[in-house]
Design a protein that fits this description.
Blueprint: E1 3-11, E2 17-25, H1 28-51, H2 56-67, H3 75-86, H4 92-104, E3 109-113, E4 116-120, H5 124-145
Antiparallel strand pairs: 1-2, 3-4
Helix pairs in contact: 1-5, 3-4
Length: 146
């Protein structure tokens, strides 16, 4: 290939964006090495994810998976249910931000109804159809959370 610029951008679950910019003589091999590096980091951190998953975001993810498995919900409904269970106030803006991030990595799906977003967990077939790209985004967001 000739002289090019390639930008690879990842978004963490907390909304941070990470950009890797390659300039010059870029080959498929070089881009492949970056993806391999990402894969190594993801595998290396899988076991530590299980031990250190105690952030508000991870609590909210677990809560959604437990309480809203077969239900559609809004951010207000999630906020109310979460506060009732944990007896800890949470701003609606924070809940909306977390849900937006979950949507970005495919952990929830949403549709707009009037002025509100209606969320739901994706079905297993939807997760399968999104394939490894979804898994990479989820794994990368877990790495970024550290």
């Amino acid at each position: 290939m000739g002289r090019n610029t390639v930008r690879i951008q990842f978004e963490g679950s907390d909304g941070e964006r990470y950009t890797i910019k390659l300039e010059g003589n870029i080959s498929k091999d070089k881009v492949s090495r970056i993806i391999d590096m990402y894969d190594l980091l993801a595998k290396r951190n899988e076991s530590s994810d299980l031990l250190q998953d105690d952030t508000t975001y991870s609590q909210l993810r677990r809560f959604v998976a437990e309480e809203f498995t077969f239900k559609k919900f809004t951010s207000d409904q999630l906020q109310e249910a979460f506060e009732n269970r944990y007896h800890h106030p949470m701003k609606l803006a924070a809940v909306s931000t977390y849900l937006s991030r979950m949507n970005n990595v495919g952990e929830v799906s949403r549709v707009k109804r009037g002025r509100k977003w209606i969320y739901r967990l994706p079905t297993p077939s939807e997760v399968e159809s999104q394939g490894s790209d979804l898994q990479r985004r989820i794994q990368f967001s877990k790495i970024i959370d550290r």
